[in-house]
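Table S2 (text version). Query chain:
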Amino acid sequence: MTTKHYDRKLLDFLLKEVIKINELFAYEYFNEHSIETANLTLDIAEGIAEKHMASAFVDSDRKEPKLESGIVKVHPKVKDFVKENAESGLISATFPFENHGQQLPKTVYAGAHYIQTSTHNAFVMYTDLMHGCSEMILRFGSDKLKEIFYPKLISGEWMGSMCLTEPQAGSSLSDINTTAYPQADGTYKLVGQKIFISAGDQDVSRNIVHLVLARIEGAPRGTKGISLFVVPKIKIDENSGTLLSENNDVKSIGIFHKMGQKATPAMHLGFGENNNCTAYLLGEENRGLPQMFKMMNGARLGVGMTGVAIASAAYQLSLQYAKERTQGRIDKSAIEQIAIIQHPDVKRMLLFQKAIVEGGLCLLLRCYKYLDLIKVSNEPKYAELAELLTPVAKTFGAEMGIQSTNQGLQVLGGYGYTEDFMLEQLARDVRICSIYEGTTGIHSLAILGREVLKNDGESLVLWKNEIDETLNKAKQNPELSFYCQKLENSINKFLDTTLQLKKFASEGLIETYLSDATIYMELFGILNIAWQWLAIALNAVDDEKGDHFSKLNTMKFYFKYELEKTEYLNSVLLNSEKLTIS
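Corresponding structure-token output:
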């Protein structure tokens, strides 16, 4: 069974008709681009996906990385994939012209990311980390650090990793122990261990640029004393930037044996075991965490996109299977069995997948557009909207990507549980998304504990204004007016619930206020996807050449089966019985 893992026609429709990327090209910073260059970028991503990723998806899962004689060996196709991404300019596409980039909108790049992640979600982690390390060095590095490391990263000659988590600290970055000792020459000696380091070692590139969170000797405890360092795997000549033959006292202690995404090794790394690990401060002392968090919105959206992209692959595969697999008869007297797609329950599962994938992708692209508008627009509202909706898009893509993928497996029945079909692998791959870049619980606490409270709830006002724009347009269409009213009513109930919950916070009952933050997040996510589906339906109404009926039908499905859940979730949030508080 072979099929593309994504729907290019859908992606084009969302980018051009719903998100309206052409609005970005009107700004001076992006005016070198057009719909034509956006199409070309997506075509390049498709070409690389088909050439280097699709055929390696299963094989790289079966032949996972191995640590041999201190070196991690990964699947050989990784090298081809990284090389072509670098040569095509995709890795540096969103960077400024003066930094060998193309000033491409992040929204367009996100479309390319969706294509490649749908095809092979583990391979893209290598290039994502190269892109992320390049962005951090470009933004916070000294001229010397930029000169040495940035060109090597965007060219694919060197690769990168982000080293945050430690064995004893987990998500609590304030408790990290890795220590940096200042040296007379301005460098530092680094000592410590990091775990779960994606692409932390491999045999593809000549060097690996690790970005490491550590505490300078004598720095304050907690998050205020954390700094960020550039730590190459192989030592470099600090004048010329050329590689020396000596390892920088960075040791691969072991590979974690993961449930999924096996093509990318998750490393346990040791730094400075022999007191010979040289580190270079990136940015200001004790500002490592704020610096890292400035880059986190993109990383979190990337995880949400991964959840949706994997769910997209599962949907495309289960849809094809449902069309081909025959079982049962509607008319008991019939001789021929029917394709299972004709069974109502199978239709329900497929519609659920479609609703999650397409609605989730639309929300993610909208968030990426906010990031682009932050850069080029003078309106502060886009920063507020991005801060509010990024954790929602990440969490929805992750949590509902898991549910959607599992529904795809269910469509295949017993076959879905076997290695004979890709659904089994996709179900393993997607599970990590609700843990990466902050768990669902952490993001839920951030929404309710920070975003809803700051500036007297201004971000929710801005959010409602955005939805009202869609509602006001959709109300003009008789076919959509009923659904406009349903969404409007649901949003008003949600805002009433928010006001009721905020009373706990105003009374100092913070634990009570935050106890059901994940339920609040689930409710907020459903409303945001309902908004996307109304926008999709609105833009599909006059699209005679597109699948207007399919989009309208999926919107109706989402409003019936998912939006209705908000009634229950509101009641749970307002229930006075708080059973999880001791």
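Notes on Table S2: DSSP finds 19 helices and twelve strands in the chain. The chain has a mean pLDDT of 94.
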